[in-house]
From TrEMBL:
It comes from the Bacteria. Transmembrane segments: none annotated. Residues 1-19 form the signal peptide. This is Right-handed parallel beta-helix repeat-containing protein. It comes from Streptomyces longisporoflavus. It holds the Pfam family Beta_helix. Keywords: Signal.
Amino acid sequence: MRTRRTLLISALGATAALAATATAGIPAAADAAPPAPAAAGTIEVSTAAELKSALTSASPGDTIHLADGTYPGNFKASTAASPGARITLTGSSKAVLTAGGGYGLHLNGASYWTVKGVTVTGGQKGIMIDSAKGVVVDTVTVHGLDMEGVHFRKSSSGGVLTNSRIYDTGNDGRGMGEGVYVGTANTLSDKSDGVQILGNTIGPDVGGEAIDLKEGTTGGRVAGNTFDGKGLTGNHYDDSWIDVKGNNYVIENNTGKNTTNNGYETHSQQSGWGCGTVFRGNESNLSGATGDKQLAINVTNFSGSCGTTVHASNTVTAGKGLTNIGVTP
């Protein structure tokens, strides 16, 4: 294997190592300090085989750096890091993970990883995040998929997707090509809570909603994104930029154009869910919408026990209006 690890050892660590060598064989004092943790390193990779090896061998604090090039295959990481010692997978957009099916990149139990800069294309799904807390996906490009682009699943809480571009998904034509998918349909056991989706460009040619926020998930934030719904199929009700089925989400300062029906929607797929959403500062251009409602924000199951707040700072161009409920200043 040609993987190269560059150790970053501090002067203090080097001195400690020399001292340990000099005193080999001498019993340690009862109050001696514990050994210092292994120093973080950078793993340079340039082939698919090297990448698979690095994903397996990386330790908390390490960085895996991809050279520009194509990396064919399906890639998986399952080592958990920590908030203070993340594992980072990074490269430019010219470092392209190309799957021939399945998941392009699967973070399975790989909590506190950062994935930055790379491109993921081909396969069924782009970046799948399972049972992994605190994952950050930053400045990636995801496209050319049969189904969804980025999926936070199996109680992958506290994740962030930011500054990324997702387009050309759902190519199997079944309306299951969401740009971003949070949670699991028809279950309340997937607690992928507190996921933030910030400053991304999603679309065109996304075969499902740009963002689908499932029942069972709560407390996320969707802000500063740009949506282009050109390519929505209408299958499985994929007729809006965002469909909120979870609770207590904040949807703010997003911009959308091109939709087959409404801009943003809430639904109660399970009793007590699809509630507590706050919409503010969103701009909706419904020119060309073909549905029978054509609202910027369509709210279902609105009641005293399942409220939604639509602020007057939301705006709409064309269509039939801003919302079907009262507006809050």
